[in-house]
Amino acid sequence: MGNVDLQCGLRLRGAQLAYQTYGELNARKDNVIVFPTFFGSQHPANEPMIGPGMALDPTRYFIIIPNLFGNGLSSSPSNTPEPYGRARFPRVTYYDNIGFQHRLVTEQFGVERIALVCGFSMGAQQTFHWGALYPDMVERIAPWCGSAKTARHNFVFLEGVKSALCADDAWQGGWYDSPPAKGLRAMSRVYAGWAPSQAFYREKVYLDLGFSSLEDYLITAWEGRYLQQDANNILAMVATWQAGDISDNPLYGGDFAKALGSIKARAFVMPSRTDQYFPPEDNEIEVSMMPNADLRVIETIWGHTGGGPGRNPADTAFIDAQLKELLAS
Amino acid sequence: MGNVDLQCGLRLRGAQLAYQTYGELNARKDNVIVFPTFFGSQHPANEPMIGPGMALDPTRYFIIIPNLFGNGLSSSPSNTPEPYGRARFPRVTYYDNIGFQHRLVTEQFGVERIALVCGFSMGAQQTFHWGALYPDMVERIAPWCGSAKTARHNFVFLEGVKSALCADDAWQGGWYDSPPAKGLRAMSRVYAGWAPSQAFYREKVYLDLGFSSLEDYLITAWEGRYLQQDANNILAMVATWQAGDISDNPLYGGDFAKALGSIKARAFVMPSRTDQYFPPEDNEIEVSMMPNADLRVIETIWGHTGGGPGRNPADTAFIDAQLKELLAS
């Protein structure tokens, strides 16, 4: 990306936007789908939603997955050279990210219209931002398990995640040489309470998933996941998430109702019924202020995780069906 | 209590059960109410539910508040002499606690019938235990914001709380000389996401409570609360909570349905509609297996905290009204 000026006022030099594409851009350049990544993930984690016969069909659409800044592939604390590396990595907002993605789509591919922007969780929040920031360019949006603005409760949940990670002295304010494993394990256990649902644990779904016990699930699925990640990268993504707000930018100046009202795209907004930090209520309020939006609730006991691409076949199939309907509209 | 043998197999010597009474025991000894304490609290925290004209009227009833082991007044890591002090404090279960409370009631006061056992949160869990362990002695029970068995999701929430506290090196495996302040602050922020509700934060109820901002609420109400507490005491109470199960004892041998079915007391079970870790669903299941129980949901956006004695006047009034009805039955 070259040198980019961020919303926080800092300049990131030699910024990198990593992306992956699927399918071919057609001659009319009207078959574009943008599918941003979610927290703690890179583009392969989105791939279970892509395939022949699925809504995101690469034989028909040109699908671009841009990697979120901080995720370890795009510019991140872990891959940015000094003096902006590690703990000094600047706060990057969704506004920054979507601006970069817009440059990718327009400058790299010469695309002027996007058939669909969709995504899960932080990908959903990026989707909302696309709709609000480029209302004349985006024809459809399908955010699932995410909101246009990070709710205060969601913010507090993330305070717990951050605090658990940073309570480990080995974190050293971000200047660690070896990973703060104890803090990463602690935040994993905090996260494990939030991402599934009460009913997920009540029904012992983790056993169906092949874990030997609740404790094995906590160690393998949760500690195992975050131990692989860089602590500063995690914190960079959390910072983006906590600041999420489609109106917190020069275009809308904090007028959230105006930002929601400006989304021209046909929208299917899909919360999970049992999501503990992106609950359906927040989306209901948002949809009521959007001119062209439907609320389609994912009826699942998987909580937030139900929306994870390919995580739960039934929920993935539901989301895929909604995407097909939306694309056909 | 003298020397007490615990369910875990250890013997606590010179065990102390701290309690407070309100009102007078009448001649027939039939006006007794037992009102156990909740997590991180001591008997004064229950007092807002007690007063002339309230259900728990000390001019009419003899109200006993026994302090939970681990709470800093009854035997706890912080007040138990070596070799069983600090990190070596044994795991004390609800079964142990209720056995001690039974000794208090019978040996100290010669009481054979209890008109009502009631309590909030861990106090509710103790209430369920009273009903199951002494079914011929307890006439009524009113547990609110608590369950007869700690749900797995609830267990995982507590794993997050524990992990955040213990991620601080200053905890030193429980052998700290000065408090692990960073860990206490971290667990406070984890807790802050769980105890209220999504709607509590959406509606900014913390401003109505006199805090200047969300961050002031997190620091003052949450960090301020747990910084005052001993870390090992907190962990002792969490251990009791995580192991909560009215059937995990010699009387029921793990047969949860049998334990619930054995509760003869007339029961009003009162979950908060928006409780994130003692959700109404868990109580619904329990009530369906109890022979003489009603589910009375506290319709509140305060989440778990709505049930805290005196916290929210409307919720306290609702609970008080149910207690009056139950006592009149």
UniProtKB/TrEMBL annotation, chains A, B:
* Protein name according to UniProt: Homoserine O-acetyltransferase
Q: What is the lineage of its organism?
A: Eukaryota, Metazoa, Porifera, Demospongiae, Heteroscleromorpha
Source organism (scientific name): Geodia barretti
Report the domain of life of the source organism.
Eukaryota
What residue stretches are annotated with the AB hydrolase-1 domain?
32-298
Identify the catalytic residues.
Answer: S121, D275, H304
Q: GO: which molecular function terms?
A: acyltransferase activity, transferring groups other than amino-acyl groups
Pfam family for this entry, one: Abhydrolase_1
Q: Which family does it belong to?
A: Belongs to the AB hydrolase superfamily. MetX family.
